[in-house]
Structure formats: C-alpha cells, structure tokens
Design brief:
Blueprint (H helix, E strand, L loop, with lengths): L1 H7 L7 E11 L6 H15 L2 H8 L6 E8 L5 E10 L2 H13 L10 H13 L4 E11 L9 H10 L3 E6 L15 H9 L16 H14 L24 H13 L4
Parallel strand pairs: 1-2, 1-4, 4-5
Antiparallel strand pairs: 2-3
Length: 262
Amino acid sequence: MFSVLAAVLPTLAEEHVDVALVLAVDVSRSMSQEELDLQRRGYAAAISSPDVVRAIEIGARGRIAMTMFEWANDSHVREIVGWHVLADAEDANAFAAKVLADTSYGQRRTSISGAIRHGTALLSNLPFLADRRVIDISGDGPNNQGAIVTAARDAALKTGITINGLPLMTKGGFGAQFNIDDLDEYYRRCVIGGPASFVVPVNGWEQFPEAVRRKLILEIGGIRPAEPAKVMQAQFNFEKPYDCEIGEKIWRKLRRQFFLDP
C-alpha cells in the first residue's frame, strides 16, 4: 500500500507553483496593538477573498505557495504560517484561519533589511519548484536598524527575487516619531525591485484589506499595476538621489536627544 501511495502522491519537492510568495509583516512598536490586529484581519480577509482564489485558479499551474512571518528588529523574525500550497478556496481559507489564530505584539526597532534577508533565505531553500519568487513586505517606517536596506535589496535581486512594497502611511503607536511622510517614495526608491515590482501605499486602515487583496492578485498574476509612477526597476534609476539611510539618521538624532537605547 505504501509503495502505491508513494507512486501516486507527489512529494512536496515535486510541487510546481506559479509563484512562491513570502508575506513579511511589520510588527514594530510604531504600530499600535489595534493596528496590528487590523493588519492581521486585513491579510486574512484578502487571502481568503474570492478574487484572490480566482487569481490562483486561473494561473498557468493553478497553484501558488505562500508563507507569512512577522518582523521588527534585526533579531525578531517569527513565523506566523509556514509554507502552504494554495490551489482553491479551501486552501486559502485554511491559510487565513491560521493567520487569525495567531496574535502579534509590538517589538522594538525596524529592520526592513533583516526582513528581506530572511525572506531571501526562505526563497533560496524552497521545498518545491516556483516559476517566480516574490517577497511582499509591509511596513510603516524606514529601516533604522541592521544592515543598510539597499544592500539587502540588491542581494535579493541578484538571486532573481522580486520585492514588492506595502508602505503603511498611517500614524499610531509608540515610536511614530521615527516615521517619514514620503514612505511610499522611500519604498519605491530603496526597498522594491525586480521584474514587475511595485508599491501599493495604504493611506488609512480602512483601505488596508482592499490594498492587500489587489496586491496579492497582481503578485499571483505577475502583473504590474496600471500606475507607472508606482513602478520602479530599483537597480536602474535616473531620478534625483534619495537618502535611503534616512531612518538610521532619524534614529541617531533622536537617540542623542532622548538618550535612547542603541
């Protein structure tokens, strides 16, 4: 019986998916507990939405792989849901249920570079084949700890990974003084990159579930959004230089002013 099952059922390593998608979710203390809860519910609603399920089903292979982890400082990475292959509504609902079953708590500092490095490691050791590999990173502030964000981004791009951004243009929680008004531009210039990479800014929490839903559909289909201003090949840039170390500079300034911990 075992030999028959082994011959019929493919192993995980033999799975072939349209895209392997890493959802990297910010839980830094610049977000309030209410915002963390809204974020989790928004992801669950988007993942289980009929539109996202339909996008999965009409793909060339009709399945994707997805995992989700939370991140804050360079040493805080915690898995929320491990790798799952999603092919239908039942799979999507099961993934969403696991998202809702967990609880996030705010952590110190913001290391986008650490999140990118962890996502890169996950995608570099996939237990299956994927036509595309994508890191979907959300956050409400610039990198202020760990390696420089552009170095982590460029290392990921060299391996063929695409990085998309969901900058949260929201206010709330302890540490909001570390945020910047043009976070969408920061993500566009310093965080995203790779084929069909894009940014979807969120200006209010009421927009969040729809923004995630739209972003997932685009990522599953490998499609750029219609707004060319939101799209960037991060490694090719002829625009006026942007200070991608602004988060680190804000932290150093406030640390000197308020004698904060390193």
